[in-house]
Amino acid sequence: MVSRTVLRVGLIGCGEAAQSKIAGDMVSITTEPQTLCASPDVDVVFVINSDEYHVDHAILALENNKFVFVEKPLALNVRDIKRIKSAERNSNCKVSFVPTIERRIDIQTDRSQDIIGPNSAFVSQSGTFPKRFTDISPEDIEDKTTRATEFVRQALESECGVPITKSSTTMWRILGGLGSHDLSAMREALGMPNKVLGANLGYPFWKWVNIETLADIVSSNNHKSIVCFSNIPALR
Protein backbone atom coordinates (compact mmCIF):
# COMPACT_ATOMS: atom_id res chain seq x y z
CA MET A 1 0.00 0.00 0.00
CA VAL A 2 1.37 3.39 -0.98
CA SER A 3 1.77 5.74 1.95
CA ARG A 4 0.23 9.19 1.66
CA THR A 5 1.85 12.37 2.94
CA VAL A 6 -0.43 14.93 4.53
CA LEU A 7 0.64 18.44 3.60
CA ARG A 8 0.11 21.22 6.09
CA VAL A 9 -1.34 24.23 4.28
CA GLY A 10 -1.13 27.89 5.17
CA LEU A 11 -3.59 30.33 3.58
CA ILE A 12 -2.73 33.97 2.96
CA GLY A 13 -6.12 35.52 2.36
CA CYS A 14 -9.58 34.05 2.90
CA GLY A 15 -12.14 35.87 0.76
CA GLU A 16 -15.49 34.61 -0.50
CA ALA A 17 -14.11 32.20 -3.11
CA ALA A 18 -11.49 30.82 -0.71
CA GLN A 19 -14.11 30.29 1.99
CA SER A 20 -16.39 28.41 -0.41
CA LYS A 21 -13.68 26.23 -1.99
CA ILE A 22 -10.63 25.84 0.23
CA ALA A 23 -10.81 26.92 3.85
CA GLY A 24 -11.57 24.34 6.54
CA ASP A 25 -11.15 24.31 10.28
CA MET A 26 -8.58 26.87 11.37
CA VAL A 27 -5.70 25.66 13.51
CA SER A 28 -4.15 29.06 14.10
CA ILE A 29 -4.52 32.59 12.76
CA THR A 30 -2.04 35.40 12.24
CA THR A 31 -2.13 38.79 10.55
CA GLU A 32 1.55 38.52 9.59
CA PRO A 33 2.44 36.70 6.33
CA GLN A 34 6.05 36.41 7.53
CA THR A 35 4.93 34.40 10.56
CA LEU A 36 2.90 32.01 8.42
CA CYS A 37 5.62 31.52 5.79
CA ALA A 38 8.33 30.93 8.39
CA SER A 39 6.27 28.47 10.41
CA PRO A 40 7.72 24.93 10.62
CA ASP A 41 4.10 23.72 10.75
CA VAL A 42 3.44 24.86 7.16
CA ASP A 43 4.54 22.88 4.08
CA VAL A 44 2.57 24.66 1.36
CA VAL A 45 1.44 28.28 1.13
CA PHE A 46 -1.69 29.29 -0.79
CA VAL A 47 -1.50 32.97 -1.80
CA ILE A 48 -5.18 33.75 -2.36
CA ASN A 49 -5.45 37.33 -1.18
CA SER A 50 -5.86 40.51 -3.21
CA ASP A 51 -3.93 40.77 -6.51
CA GLU A 52 -1.69 43.55 -5.24
CA TYR A 53 0.04 41.23 -2.75
CA HIS A 54 0.47 38.04 -4.79
CA VAL A 55 4.05 38.77 -5.86
CA ASP A 56 5.48 39.83 -2.50
CA HIS A 57 3.83 36.99 -0.61
CA ALA A 58 4.80 34.36 -3.19
CA ILE A 59 8.41 35.53 -2.93
CA LEU A 60 8.17 35.50 0.87
CA ALA A 61 7.03 31.88 0.80
CA LEU A 62 9.81 30.88 -1.61
CA GLU A 63 12.39 32.61 0.56
CA ASN A 64 11.19 30.39 3.40
CA ASN A 65 11.48 27.31 1.14
CA LYS A 66 7.76 26.65 0.97
CA PHE A 67 5.91 25.37 -2.09
CA VAL A 68 3.52 28.06 -3.29
CA PHE A 69 0.13 28.02 -4.99
CA VAL A 70 -0.77 31.48 -6.34
CA GLU A 71 -4.24 32.56 -7.36
CA LYS A 72 -4.49 34.44 -10.63
CA PRO A 73 -2.99 36.79 -11.57
CA LEU A 74 0.48 35.55 -10.69
CA ALA A 75 1.66 39.11 -11.40
CA LEU A 76 0.43 42.16 -13.27
CA ASN A 77 3.62 42.96 -15.17
CA VAL A 78 6.75 41.34 -16.61
CA ARG A 79 9.07 42.89 -14.04
CA ASP A 80 7.34 41.08 -11.19
CA ILE A 81 7.24 37.78 -13.07
CA LYS A 82 11.04 38.03 -13.29
CA ARG A 83 11.20 38.72 -9.55
CA ILE A 84 9.25 35.53 -8.83
CA LYS A 85 11.40 33.47 -11.21
CA SER A 86 14.53 34.78 -9.51
CA ALA A 87 13.17 33.86 -6.07
CA GLU A 88 12.20 30.41 -7.35
CA ARG A 89 15.73 29.77 -8.65
CA ASN A 90 17.11 30.57 -5.21
CA SER A 91 14.55 28.43 -3.37
CA ASN A 92 14.24 24.71 -2.73
CA CYS A 93 10.58 24.91 -3.76
CA LYS A 94 8.43 25.90 -6.73
CA VAL A 95 5.41 28.01 -7.66
CA SER A 96 2.13 26.70 -9.08
CA PHE A 97 -0.27 29.13 -10.75
CA VAL A 98 -4.03 28.52 -10.84
CA PRO A 99 -4.69 28.52 -14.64
CA THR A 100 -2.00 25.84 -15.11
CA ILE A 101 -3.96 23.21 -13.19
CA GLU A 102 -7.48 23.58 -14.57
CA ARG A 103 -7.48 20.63 -16.98
CA ARG A 104 -8.17 17.38 -15.14
CA ILE A 105 -8.90 14.82 -17.89
CA ASP A 106 -8.79 14.56 -21.66
CA ILE A 107 -11.79 16.33 -23.14
CA GLN A 108 -14.32 14.01 -24.78
CA THR A 109 -17.30 16.34 -25.18
CA ASP A 110 -17.45 20.09 -25.75
CA ARG A 111 -20.50 21.70 -24.20
CA SER A 112 -21.19 25.08 -22.61
CA GLN A 113 -23.48 25.00 -19.61
CA ASP A 114 -22.90 28.38 -18.01
CA ILE A 115 -20.83 31.52 -18.33
CA ILE A 116 -18.48 32.58 -15.56
CA GLY A 117 -19.18 36.15 -14.54
CA PRO A 118 -18.55 37.90 -11.23
CA ASN A 119 -17.53 35.71 -8.28
CA SER A 120 -20.95 36.34 -6.75
CA ALA A 121 -22.54 34.36 -9.61
CA PHE A 122 -21.15 31.07 -8.30
CA VAL A 123 -20.26 31.89 -4.69
CA SER A 124 -23.95 32.55 -3.96
CA GLN A 125 -24.75 29.02 -5.24
CA SER A 126 -22.03 27.26 -3.23
CA GLY A 127 -24.11 26.62 -0.12
CA THR A 128 -21.14 27.57 2.07
CA PHE A 129 -22.40 31.02 3.12
CA PRO A 130 -19.05 32.84 3.06
CA LYS A 131 -18.74 36.07 5.00
CA ARG A 132 -17.66 39.46 3.70
CA PHE A 133 -15.59 41.76 5.88
CA THR A 134 -15.28 45.54 5.75
CA ASP A 135 -13.12 46.23 8.80
CA ILE A 136 -10.15 47.36 6.69
CA SER A 137 -8.05 50.25 7.96
CA PRO A 138 -7.63 53.40 5.82
CA GLU A 139 -3.87 52.75 5.80
CA ASP A 140 -4.35 49.28 4.30
CA ILE A 141 -6.75 50.61 1.67
CA GLU A 142 -4.24 53.30 0.71
CA ASP A 143 -1.42 50.74 0.48
CA LYS A 144 -3.53 48.49 -1.76
CA THR A 145 -4.46 51.40 -4.04
CA THR A 146 -0.85 52.61 -4.27
CA ARG A 147 0.36 49.14 -5.21
CA ALA A 148 -2.33 48.72 -7.86
CA THR A 149 -1.52 52.08 -9.44
CA GLU A 150 2.20 51.31 -9.59
CA PHE A 151 1.68 47.82 -11.04
CA VAL A 152 -0.58 49.11 -13.81
CA ARG A 153 1.79 51.98 -14.64
CA GLN A 154 4.68 49.52 -14.91
CA ALA A 155 2.68 47.15 -17.12
CA LEU A 156 0.91 49.57 -19.44
CA GLU A 157 3.23 52.58 -19.71
CA SER A 158 6.67 51.10 -19.10
CA GLU A 159 6.30 47.65 -20.68
CA CYS A 160 3.53 47.99 -23.28
CA GLY A 161 3.60 51.68 -24.21
CA VAL A 162 -0.16 51.93 -23.66
CA PRO A 163 -1.74 55.12 -22.25
CA ILE A 164 -3.28 54.65 -18.82
CA THR A 165 -7.01 55.28 -18.93
CA LYS A 166 -9.92 53.94 -16.91
CA SER A 167 -10.76 51.59 -19.79
CA SER A 168 -7.23 50.27 -20.35
CA THR A 169 -6.74 49.77 -16.61
CA THR A 170 -10.03 47.88 -16.25
CA MET A 171 -9.33 45.57 -19.19
CA TRP A 172 -5.76 44.91 -18.00
CA ARG A 173 -7.03 43.87 -14.60
CA ILE A 174 -9.77 41.69 -16.15
CA LEU A 175 -7.25 40.01 -18.45
CA GLY A 176 -5.07 39.20 -15.45
CA GLY A 177 -8.03 38.00 -13.42
CA LEU A 178 -11.08 36.15 -14.75
CA GLY A 179 -9.78 36.63 -18.30
CA SER A 180 -7.17 33.95 -17.66
CA HIS A 181 -9.98 31.41 -17.30
CA ASP A 182 -11.50 32.49 -20.62
CA LEU A 183 -8.20 32.02 -22.43
CA SER A 184 -7.69 28.65 -20.73
CA ALA A 185 -11.20 27.48 -21.66
CA MET A 186 -10.74 28.48 -25.30
CA ARG A 187 -7.36 26.78 -25.46
CA GLU A 188 -8.64 23.52 -23.99
CA ALA A 189 -11.99 23.45 -25.82
CA LEU A 190 -10.92 24.73 -29.23
CA GLY A 191 -7.20 24.02 -29.35
CA MET A 192 -4.25 26.37 -29.63
CA PRO A 193 -4.99 29.30 -31.97
CA ASN A 194 -2.91 30.24 -34.98
CA LYS A 195 -4.34 33.74 -35.35
CA VAL A 196 -6.74 36.26 -33.81
CA LEU A 197 -9.68 37.22 -36.02
CA GLY A 198 -10.77 40.12 -33.89
CA ALA A 199 -11.39 41.44 -30.42
CA ASN A 200 -13.71 44.03 -28.94
CA LEU A 201 -12.89 45.44 -25.54
CA GLY A 202 -15.87 46.05 -23.35
CA TYR A 203 -17.39 45.36 -19.97
CA PRO A 204 -19.08 43.18 -18.88
CA PHE A 205 -17.19 40.70 -21.01
CA TRP A 206 -19.26 37.59 -20.22
CA LYS A 207 -22.21 38.50 -22.47
CA TRP A 208 -22.33 36.03 -25.30
CA VAL A 209 -23.98 34.95 -28.53
CA ASN A 210 -26.06 31.85 -29.10
CA ILE A 211 -24.25 28.55 -29.50
CA GLU A 212 -25.26 28.13 -33.16
CA THR A 213 -23.54 31.39 -34.11
CA LEU A 214 -20.42 30.46 -32.16
CA ALA A 215 -20.38 26.97 -33.70
CA ASP A 216 -20.57 28.40 -37.22
CA ILE A 217 -17.64 30.74 -36.56
CA VAL A 218 -15.53 28.04 -34.92
CA SER A 219 -16.19 25.41 -37.61
CA SER A 220 -15.46 27.85 -40.42
CA ASN A 221 -12.03 28.49 -38.94
CA ASN A 222 -11.16 24.90 -38.09
CA HIS A 223 -11.15 25.45 -34.32
CA LYS A 224 -7.90 27.38 -34.60
CA SER A 225 -8.85 31.04 -34.34
CA ILE A 226 -9.75 33.09 -31.30
CA VAL A 227 -12.97 35.07 -31.63
CA CYS A 228 -13.62 37.46 -28.77
CA PHE A 229 -17.15 38.75 -28.15
CA SER A 230 -18.09 41.56 -25.85
CA ASN A 231 -21.23 43.56 -25.15
CA ILE A 232 -23.32 41.23 -27.33
CA PRO A 233 -26.75 40.46 -25.83
CA ALA A 234 -27.30 36.86 -24.86
CA LEU A 235 -29.49 34.94 -27.29
CA ARG A 236 -30.36 31.86 -25.28
TrEMBL record:
<dbReference type="Pfam" id="PF01408">
    <property type="entry name" value="GFO_IDH_MocA"/>
</dbReference>
<comment type="similarity">
    <text>Belongs to the Gfo/Idh/MocA family.</text>
</comment>
<dbReference type="GO" id="GO:0000166">
    <property type="term" value="F:nucleotide binding"/>
</dbReference>
<feature type="domain" description="Gfo/Idh/MocA-like oxidoreductase N-terminal">
    <location>
        <begin position="29"/>
        <end position="96"/>
    </location>
</feature>
<keyword id="KW-0560">Oxidoreductase</keyword>
<dbReference type="InterPro" id="IPR051317">
    <property type="entry name" value="Gfo/Idh/MocA_oxidoreduct"/>
</dbReference>
<dbReference type="InterPro" id="IPR036291">
    <property type="entry name" value="NAD(P)-bd_dom_sf"/>
</dbReference>
<dbReference type="GO" id="GO:0016491">
    <property type="term" value="F:oxidoreductase activity"/>
</dbReference>
<protein>
    <submittedName>
        <fullName>Unnamed protein product</fullName>
    </submittedName>
</protein>
<dbReference type="InterPro" id="IPR000683">
    <property type="entry name" value="Gfo/Idh/MocA-like_OxRdtase_N"/>
</dbReference>
